[in-house]
## 1
Amino acid sequence: MKMLRFLPLAAAAGLALAGPARAESLLQMYEDARAYDATWQSAKSQYDANLYRAEQARAGLLPQAAITGGVTRSQIDTQSPVPAVVQDRFFGTQNATLSASQPLYRPANWATWKQAVRQKDQAEYQLVSSSQDLILRVSQAYFDVLAAQDTLGYTRALKEATSEQLAAAKRNFEVGTTTITDTREAQARFDLVLAQEIQAENDLRIKRLALDTVVGKPNSQPEPLGSLANVPPPQPADPESWVAASETASPAVLQARSNVEIAELETEKARAGHKPTVDLTANYGVIRNIDGTTTTGFDSRGKSGSAGIAFNMPLFSGFAVQNRVRETLALEEKARTDLEATRRQVAQAVRTAYFGVVSGQNQVRALESAESSSQSSLDANRLGYQVGVRINIDVLNAQTQLFQTKRDLSQARYNVLLGHLKLRQANGTLQAEDLVRLNTLLAR
């Protein structure tokens, strides 16, 4: 009987369902997604808005200037009793004033500005988190398509092998060396594989649609990866080292720590309610009287200017400041508690992701051994069937076991790759450069 040549990963499905689109690497698809993905674009717009909002706080430290002006027209009636004389006179006024002020000592404004600086940092942390989420979503969709292609390829290879076994059973039945039972068992297994092929085709179609939705291109075709046996274990090989890195890299931890600093500055602002404020003020005004005033009938023009220091010292505000300080101190404690909770959550997520990668690599090694054993079992059953010590169902079962093992091994290898990215996302070190290293590592 002809020995089956198993197709390499993704090759069979690529020949069957590959569209005309050129295959792209994972990094290329990530760049496409950055320009298209609505979720990331929304996060980028929010980042820009947060930057502008933070800049608004600078206004409390900068000079303020304004121009005011006005025009009036008045009428006055005067009447003298002896002799009775009525005078009707009109006059007008035009005025303009330029005023400016510069804060000299406003502790609340300085605290607000420091908060704005922290808020700018928070906007960056949020964008980094969104970028890491996009990397993971693109990678998940990318590997899902490759795994679906492998599954379809292995299912079609199993269909071919089952078809050969069915043909052999029919021939043996015709010459009288086997019973009709062998033929019917092979036919039943062949029909089952046909159903599995239909399911695999539909699953691949759905996975491709999901990838198209992320990258914004129709008929997206992932570039098949090279050898997946060269994926190294996590480095450093210590989960606590990954946890320690999250203290300075995790966007969630950094944002929670920034929340503590903002809360402390809010207390500083509240305490500023007891402190004085000092401003430098200046103004310059011009007034023009047209056709006189109420007391004169002549045009006149006057100018005035002043400069000085404005001092304001709050004395009592009904205990509002004291209670505001108490409120902000309680919010400080809440922010510190939230920071500790975030640290614990991130640490747990990092450890889970680390052991997930380690376990996945052990599973890959176990499945590689199972694949080799399943191949040996299939060869032995085929030989036993030829010499009459094995029956047809033994060969069919061995074939099914081999291809299921190959499918599971393929999925496990992709899970390990994705696990590496999830580990870096968990501790906050995931970057687009990781996709470059992955492409280099897995180059064909």
Note: The longest strand covers residues 85-105.
## 2
Amino acid sequence: MRPASAPTLPRQTVLLVLVAALGYFVDVYDLLLFSLLRAPSLAALGVAPADLLSQGLRILNWQAAGLLLGGILWGVLGDKRGRLSVLFGSILLYSLANLLNGLVQTVDQYAVLRFVAGLGLAGELGAGVTLVAELLPRERRGLGTSIVAGVGVLGGVFGTWVAGSSDWRHAYFLGGGLGLALLGLRLGVAESRLFERAASGDGPRGDLAMLLRPVSRLLRYLRVIAIGLPLWYLIGILITFCPEFGRAFGLEQAPNAGFAVSIYYAGLAVGDLSSGLVSQWLRSRRRAIALFLCCQALGVGLYFSLGRVSLDAFYACCVFLGVAGGYWALFVTVGAEQFGTNLRATVATTAPNMVRGALMPMTLAFNGFRSGGLGLPASALLLGAMVFGIAVWGLSGTEESYGKDLDYLEAG
């Protein structure tokens, strides 16, 4: 007897996955532009070569601060006003900010506009993943969100190509234009039925204070954030500053940051698609993330050992780190699945941006270790050990959420 085929998804749900994937594609493109254009754009603004690292870290911190604040803003709005309002508002804000980024004349203007862009970029992924998780059948949630991330991270590959083949100002103009063009597709996406039911009630929605009490709920939230920290350590430290690491390793030719970002994100696309399949195969979110964490730790070890051998070996390590880092969508999905409908968008939007915003203390600690005389590689390794330790703590106390019914509310 033939098994019954899986029911066909409604056209509107398929459109949602497509729109969320393309939205994240533009999000990743815009988010990585500064990392890709750091050296040429700052040099064009008159920054001395010796100051490129310090000024780059400063602007990255401004962008990270925008992501942190924006994550809170859009997360609360997502539970109070709806997931779609966040998708429209966030994409409009970061698109306009990126258009203005192409017009900056000073480093201070650059920093402020990267902060504004960070505010806008903070809302895209969490709202998209929340919608996909709430509209897809529970047995397809992991696959749906993995498709969103797998397609989306290719924006990093596209961004690398654009950054290497056009003027840095034109790259920002393109990012803003793509975002505005995407707004038209959003018109065909429906609001989550789970949110509409929650909004028809009288209970609290998007209340940040609910994340602080009771202590068990706060710990649940902190553990979700902890799981994602290694992902931003990889791209924010090891990949972004790979030219400096290559020189510290004694490579004859310093790695090209743009190429390293491109191949890292190509690996990340493979990893994000694979993590969803692995999660489905294992029927477990926790075991899938644990497997990818182990691969990440191995990749970091290879980066600091095999990466010293040759430039080709260094780039191979970057690809491996990308594949191993491919559980970003799974991490956001876990965050969405850990909380009820009245807090789900708040968590799914704030958690990834808390991780992105954590780049700020990471870079400060990294610089502090360097200033203390540890040297570049040792400073990065010490920071990595701390980050992975926190992630293990987070995963060890996180509830398994594979196949979990999401139609419930958090008690006020």
Note: The first helix runs from residue 11 to 44.
## 3
Amino acid sequence: MRSRVVAALVLVVGTLHPCPAEAELPRPVRRAFADAGLPFDSVAIVVQRVDAKSPLIDHQGDVPMNPASVMKLVTTFAALELLGPGYRWQTDVYLDGPLVDGTLKGNLVIKGRGDPKITIEQWQTLMRELRARGLQRIEGDLVLDRSAFRLPLHDAALFDNEPLRPYNVGPDALLVNFKSVRFAFAANATDNGVDVSVEPPLPQIALGASPSLVDGPCDDWRRLASAAFISQPRAAAATFPGSFARSCGMRDWHVALLDHPSYVHGMFRTYFAEAGGDFGGAVREGRAPLTAPFAILESPPLYDVVRDVNKLSNNVMARQLFLTLATTAEPLPATPEKAVAAVQRWLGQHRLAIPGFAIENGSGLSRVERLTASGLARLLAIANRGAVRDEFATSLAVAATDGTLERRMTDAYAAGRALLKTGSLEGVRALAGYVIDASGTRWILVAFVNHPNAARATPALDHLAEWVFRQADAYARGRR
């Protein structure tokens, strides 16, 4: 009896919401995905005019799928609305002791509040500010107050066993320079060897052998460099005993080394000394004193941060932003659970129910995050008519112009006219945002591919964006 009732319910649901068939996709779009070896049940596509009440194309729009980095659209739109485009993070510096003739008779305390974008340049500005305020020498230690976030232990190898990749850096209340180190390679001035420089030049990182300079193509230069990295929480080493081709010119290799406190300690030692300061103390955890800050570092405005998150698909910045959402409704410390609740409340405020929606860290670097194409399309429609429309839309990569789309659709008519967020994981490819056609009509485009062959989907996704630009309006008129 129960099975018959379930079957009947399935029949009713299927009648009210028939499963889209291949034929519902325009023939050129079907052919592009078929040529990529992608079955149609692994693809979800929604195309809709921003001012329309219903989609022009809805293929599996209500099927929850892994969106990869396209999930950043949810995080950034929520942030722009809940925090405001002009929101700024604040990092405070305190003196825990008297300042006597330029010497701090105690510890220097730095309290982080989750700033996603403390770059080397901003850190240097802060160090110069400390010196300008009369701080010359520190007799005590560097104390880090990271209590604004309460996080589970982060395993950088957990996602894909690539713990040194900067995209696997975990969030932190005091994130500095994305906890990343850049190794720069170039032939030396006499063209008989290779110079390897390290930025930032942290004292805890030992640099070993440089690669030999050789002739030949620059095809797989990283493999030929034969890099060996050793990364411990408090110390790291890098050596490159292989070769480097002259034809490579200048190359960069970004690696995540050390733990967060040791990285900040190295940044402070390096750049406080550069500013003329004197510090030789240790680093430890602690809490900021209940006094006024000695100096304050303000972040760039949120709209600038959102632009980096979406155009460059920066995962750790997205995770910092996601955790900051927790502060919009609940007191510190921010936790992933509070951030999830904040996003769910925000969706509820927009009366937007997304079947199977799951958000874990807000960056899309997840195997559990789920989103439907139709749910995201509705969210994009809300964003297009909302108060933060311009800040949100201009944060997206522009086809053939910048960000993750700089080298895509370069010969397409949609070049410069498609504002999109890309998504890429093993087994996942995604594309979502807006396409503005030749008449100025703005279209919403959302496409997810979840399949072992998803890596082949990029040309088909680009073809879909081009189809929207060139043919969506005519296709809509032909269906009236």
Note: The longest helix spans residues 458-478.
